[in-house]
Design a protein that fits this description.
Chain lengths: 225, 442
């Protein structure tokens, strides 16, 4: 912005943190006022700390009709940005831009489609938004984590539709990586797959689904980086 | 009062510089090619790659030394990463995004005030484009009488992991179609021969204003109709599109109108599915293949250009081979091949840059070799044929006139003729090499 123009008014992209929810030792969510922020379930936003010079993209964790805007954050050990987010307190300002992305779910699609949501770790975020936005959606949510306490907000999901794959302990529905579960599972031919998480999981899951005969167009990916 | 403006980077910066020139010349400044004669020195910067940014740092260091001997005002605009912007605030007199170009005269008048660090707290990290319309309203000072660039869209929402443009140019915003048609109509009536629609995601045009604005295909159609009813011959191009938003309808429209140039620039970036995912490119190779198939079917004479990054994080030899295979499959006429360099602000900056410079250079060379074979084959196919060529320059070695075909292949004539500059003429192709051809005017 201009050197010459003093800016004494709060920018409308600045949001105050209303609540911080602690989810596990290093994962938490930030709740911001919804204000006029309109989005489609599945989209993401860009989040920065006012006064800083960096931002990161986060899937929107809340549903479209929720009364807050929420993002799910996992603190990266020795990271630059997430430790700074971790130190924020309620009332601090963050800068929000968006929404972005075509991972968003259209209402008419949500009402008629059959979906398998595949997430690793915090990749569950866009799917929570979709499920909260479209309560009647026909879905199976396969969530791959290391430990069961990383099954963020697990109780919100229909237990018959939620498959927790725990790679390092036997506490979920399936002990092992989610790709192992995927390999041994069958899905209806018309299923739409949405994948979200780290790129290695997405590569592997993509290959498994292609090997099962699903078209690349049936598989939508959102990589976390 | 004289000004000197250095423009780095892409055609968008060229288009922006034309508007900066208009603003300065409106204030009474006169352009000079000689930096040492100017009292106002500016740069339209490019942050997409490291080399252009290094040029900016070198240049401002030199200009600041000159300040010891004479009064100067320096400014920088264009594509600025937040990290670079912070440093520029300490070295340039004026730093502003293009969306604030309308206020540039006031800034110059108030010159001399250095921002204290405290104001930085109010600077948004991502540039806002709500005032971009005021920049588009500035009538540009076109640098050429036959070639023009028309910005139609600004910003990027794609967040490809190798790229910082979303942080330098902000959100995608489409310019009102009525303004675009007006500017293009003016250019056509003035006899411009080559008009390029510009945008960081040029074919995402209208998507930010669904229901309020026309689509990119419809915009092309309206320009096509303009061309059909005009007595002037021109070629309409567009860059840079994203395969994610490319569709068959756009190709059908291009096929339907002579004035819509049969040259498609379609950045692929990699031919490997995994690398594309890691780059956060939203098109699959299947999608890219379908687009190319549509192009070959509907506009078979079209040339195909692309952008490629070699040596991206995660690209091993087998992934690179997939890019080589893609080159052999799609037979590009031209490719802008870059060796990956981590860009501050881009997501991949936080990853290990694991491919060695040596391997990157080797891959660039190998891919260029494939490109040369494909482009040579195409150029050979035109031997003996007569093509339309827009004469636009002079060959540095021979001094002979040069130009570009509709498909943007370089053609060198066998003589120099100033009177042909800016004209579209018939040229019989007499020889070809990779990447260019030679011919005689008929």
């Amino acid at each position: 912005m201009s050197l010459m123009k003093p800016d004494m008014q709060m920018d409308e992209s600045f949001y105050k943190i209303d609540e911080i929810r602690e989810l596990t030792g290093n994962a938490f969510s930030l709740r911001l006022p919804k204000a006029r922020f309109a989005f489609k379930a599945g989209q993401h936003l860009s989040l920065g700390i006012v006064g800083g010079n960096q931002s990161r993209e986060y899937s929107i964790y809340s549903g479209v009709d929720d009364d807050c805007l929420e993002v799910l954050v996992k603190e990266v050990e020795n990271g630059y940005f997430t430790p700074q987010l971790r130190k924020l307190k309620v009332g601090r300002l963050v800068e929000v831009h968006g929404p972005f992305g075509k991972f968003g779910m259209e209402p008419e699609v949500a009402q008629t489609g059959k979906f398998v949501f595949i997430a690793s770790g915090t990749g569950i975020a866009p799917f929570r938004s979709i499920i909260r936005t479209f309560p009647g959606i026909d879905y199976t949510l396969i969530h791959g984590v290391r430990y069961a306490d990383e099954a963020y907000d697990r109780d919100e999901y229909d237990s018959k539709r939620y498959v927790l794959c725990t790679s390092r302990e036997k506490k979920g529905s399936y002990h092992g990586r989610l790709t192992g579960y995927l390999k041994n599972s069958n899905f209806a031919p018309e299923t739409q797959f949405d994948l979200c998480g780290n790129s290695n999981m997405i590569f592997d899951a993509l290959e498994i689904l292609k090997d099962k005969g699903f078209d690349r167009d049936q598989i939508h990916c959102e990589v976390y980086f | 009062m004289k000004y000197h403006l250095i423009t780095l980077g892409c055609q968008m910066n060229i288009a922006d510089s034309e508007r900066v020139s208009s603003v300065l010349e409106g204030m009474g400044y006169v352009s000079t090619e000689n930096e040492e004669d100017a009292t106002l020195l500016g740069i339209l910067a490019c942050s997409v790659r490291q080399k252009p940014i290094d040029k900016v740092y070198n240049k401002i260091a030199q200009w600041n030394r000159w300040k010891n001997k004479r009064n100067l005002i320096t400014f920088v605009s264009g594509c600025l990463l937040p990290a670079d912007k912070e440093k520029f605030l300490k070295t340039f007199d004026l730093v502003f995004p293009m969306s604030e170009l309308g206020q540039f005269p006031d800034m110059i008048r108030e010159y001399g005030v250095v921002t204290p660090a405290g104001l930085k707290a109010r600077e948004p990290i991502m540039p806002k484009n709500e005032h971009i319309a005021s920049m588009w309203h500035i009538k540009p000072t076109y640098h050429s009488t036959y070639e023009a660039f028309v910005p139609i869209q600004n910003g990027c929402d794609k967040f490809c992991t190798f790229c910082a443009v979303p942080y330098t140019r902000g959100r995608e915003v489409s310019r009102p179609s009525a303004e675009i048609i007006e500017e293009v109509t003016h250019l056509v009536n003035q006899g411009y021969k080559s008009i390029t629609l510009l945008g960081q995601n040029v074919n995402s045009y209208g998507l930010d204003k669904k229901g309020e604005e026309i689509t990119f295909a419809e915009l092309l159609r309206q320009i096509g109709e303009l061309g059909k009813s005009s007595e002037h011959e021109f070629w309409l191009y567009f860059t840079s599109p994203n395969p994610q938003d490319m569709n068959r309808e756009v190709i059908e429209v291009i096929a339907a109108y002579d004035c819509l140039a049969k040259q498609i620039h379609l950045p692929m970036q990699s031919g490997d599915e995994r690398v594309l995912i890691k780059m956060n490119r939203r098109h699959s190779m299947d999608k890219y293949r379908r687009i190319v198939a549509d192009i070959r079917e509907l506009i078979p004479t079209a040339t195909l250009f692309t952008d490629i990054i070699v040596g991206f994080t995660g690209e091993g030899e087998s992934e690179f081979q997939n890019t080589v295979t893609a080159f052999e499959e799609f037979k590009f006429n031209m490719a802008y091949i870059a060796m990956y360099s981590p860009r501050p602000g881009a997501a991949s900056f936080r990853w290990e840059d694991e491919v060695s410079q040596e391997d990157k250079k080797d891959r660039l060379r190998r891919l260029s070799d494939v490109l040369k074979i494909c482009s040579h084959e195409y150029n050979d196919s035109l031997l003996g044929k007569t093509v339309r060529v827009l004469i636009n320059g002079t060959d540095r070695k021979t001094g002979f006139s040069t130009g570009l075909t509709e498909g943007k292949i370089i053609v060198r004539l066998d003589h120099h003729d100033d009177s042909l500059m800016g004209k579209i003429v018939n040229v019989k192709i007499t020889s070809s090499t990779f990447l260019s051809m030679s011919g005689e005017v008929v």
